[in-house]
Every structure is written in C-alpha cells, then in structure tokens.
Amino acid sequence: MSAIYFSKEHEWAMVEGNVAKVGISEYAASELGDVTFVDLPDVGKQVRQDDFMAAIESVKAASDIYAPVSGKVISVNNNLEDDPEQVNRSPEQDAWMVKLEISDVAELAGLMSREQYLEYIKTL
Amino acid sequence: MSAVCRLINHAPAAGAWNMAVDEAILRNFAAASQAPVLRLYGWQPKALSLGRYQPVSAVNLPLCQQHDIDIVRRMSGGGAVLHGDELTYSLVCTPQQLKLCGSVKDSFRLLTSFIISFYQQLGLAPAYAIDTAATVQRGRAAFCYAANEAYDILIADEKIGGNAQRRLRKLIFQHGSIPLGDYLQTGAAAMQHPVGAKDMRATCLRKLGITATRDELTKLLAQSFSEQFKVSLRVSELSVEEAIMSEQLLATKYTNDNWTLAGEQPCR
Prior knowledge:
- The structure holds two protein chains of two kinds.
- By secondary structure, chain A is of the alpha+beta class.
- Chain A has helices at residues 26-32, 79-82, 86-89, 114-122; strands spanning 2-6, 11-16, 19-24, 35-39, 46-47, 52-58, 61-66, 71-76, 98-102.
- Chain A has a six-stranded antiparallel sheet. Chain A has a three-stranded antiparallel sheet with strand order 4-6-7.
- The model of chain A has no long low-confidence stretch (mean pLDDT 94).
- Chain B starts with a strand and ends in an 8-residue tail after the last helix.
- The model of chain B has no long low-confidence stretch (mean pLDDT 91).
- In chain B, helix 1 (15-27) crosses helix 7 (240-254) and helix 4 packs across helix 6.
- At the A-B interface, helix 1, strand 4, strand 6 and strand 7 of A face helix 3 and strand 10 of B.
C-alpha cells in the first residue's frame, strides 16, 4: 500500500513502508521549463527534511530540490543523468529522483495530500 | 514611486571577484527585510564564465591561458559567455517584490523587460527570440551566443547579451550581460568545439553604432530598471557582511579549481 505526499517546495514523496520515492511535481516541472541537467546525491547520504537534496537546471536557471522527509539516500535514478528531459515528460512517474529510507515517519504529517497540494498551487 | 531598490555600482573587476560578490549579496539577502538589490559591474581582465553545471571540457583551456582569459564558474545556469567590454547586471529579489510570477520563462521575460526598454531608449529595435522568425533551440548550447532560447533578446535577428538565473527557495537571482565591444569571435574560438561564424548570429552595441560611454550606458540601464519596475534606486555600497563574505567566497570558492573546473561546492 503506497501513499503520495507533496511538499510546499513542490517535491512529491511516494511512500511505501519506510521508503519514499521522491521527485518534483508536474507543476514544478512545468514552471521550470526544459530541464537540461539533474544533479543527484550520493547513495548513503543522510538528508534532513527541507534541506538541500539535489539540484536541477532548466534552460538558464539552476534550482535546488529539497528533501520532503529526512532519511538516507538508498537509490538514485541514474537515467536522469543521460535523459534529464524525462523530468518534463514524466515528472511524477519515470522521473523519480531519489529513494529515501525514511528516518521519521511522523514528518509525513507535515506534508500535503494531492488534493491539498492542488489547492495550494492555486494560491501561488 | 514607493518601492525602493538598492543600486550598487562597481567598476570593471576580475571575474572571480565579481562572482563572489554576486553570491555574497544573494546569501546575505533576507527576504523579509531587504529591498531588491541591483548591481551594475564590468569585467577586467576578460574572463570566460561557465554555467553552474557546465563541464569544463566544453572550453579550450590552453587557448584561454594563451590569450589571458580567466575562467570562472557562475552559480547560475546556461552556457559559457566571454565577458570583456560589457555592462553586466545582477539582481536579487523575491518574486513578490518585482511582481514576478513563478515560471522561469515568464520571470525571464519580465525581468529582462528593463533591458528591452534600455535598448529601445538607445534607438534600437529589440525583440524576444520567440516573437521573431529566429530559430529557438530547446536545451542548452555550450556557447551562450551559439543558440537562441525563447526569451533571449535579438536585435535585427542577432542575439545580444545573455541572462541566467539561480533560484533559491524564496529568492530569484539573475545576472546578465550587455556586450559593448565585440568579443564574440574570441569567445566562440575559446570553446573546445569552436562555433563557426555562420552558426552564430550575435551582435554588440558598438557594432550597432552605439557610441555612448560606459558611464552613460550604466546610467541609462539603471534608469530603465527604475522606470520598468516603478522603484526608486538608492545608491549603496556592499554592507560589511557582504564585503566579508565576498572575500571568503573569493578565497574558498571562486579561485578554487574544485569549483571552477569541477563544479564542486567547497562546503554546503
């Protein structure tokens, strides 16, 4: 059984057990424009909720991606290195970026459901 | 005009120092309490800047060394630019301060509107690439002037200058160049895969017959910014904190090959 959560910084986290697959939302991908580069963290790295986790470059803009939950990086999507435009084509499916072993599931309570996130982006 | 923007004028300086100052201003910017910061500066000696994630293999390093071209790495995205006789700006603000909307492309169009106005006041006819018949490329070109993106500015179908962003959580940083003299061929030749003249349609103010001095152009650019964003400019210097951080970043990052050549952050 999995559940998807969204952060105010436009990351999504698909949670199954104590593992979160993380990427950026369709809204964020659309706002960034054509993605040209994704810089992923090393496997084994510990990240804290809301801290810098990865970086993404779209045409002429370099932006940061923040960890939606704290945890340890257990896997990264290396396909994005060769095909960063996957982020534009399939931001919430194929273009997952990082799998995190969640260190504190209580943090999920501070994230939004898809419905809440869709309401949130209407306010931006 | 009620809104205020800090204006910092710097004489042409070394590329590494310029990049260190830009980052120091960004890192010291406290969104809630600060006015936007517009910095106008130049480059002496000439330097080639790489985009944040651009591999250094894109550049012919021995040739740059032979021609005394410094190499620096920007914190912003985009391709390589050779900075020589040019007017450069950097801007730090929140999206709300200059009434920018969220998307990178839309903010580019809005943020570069003062440059369009600047060129118009010089009697030129600038247009965004997307509004012309010019070919617009998807993705990044290794040499900034070798391709047009949607909101690059063209004059008579030739690209003039380049602009690039760095985005933080609540802040937008953008800097860009307005070339006065013609460094295009030198820059194109400094790339590992030189760009031929026929593949590069780019220009500069002197080629367009603009003879105004650097000081006159600097004043006009500041005036265009003030009018476009309806802000009054308050002439300012670097704060003590900004100056100290600039020197730290210069020593630890912008003169450090780990950053310049490999793009590795000295600390995060």
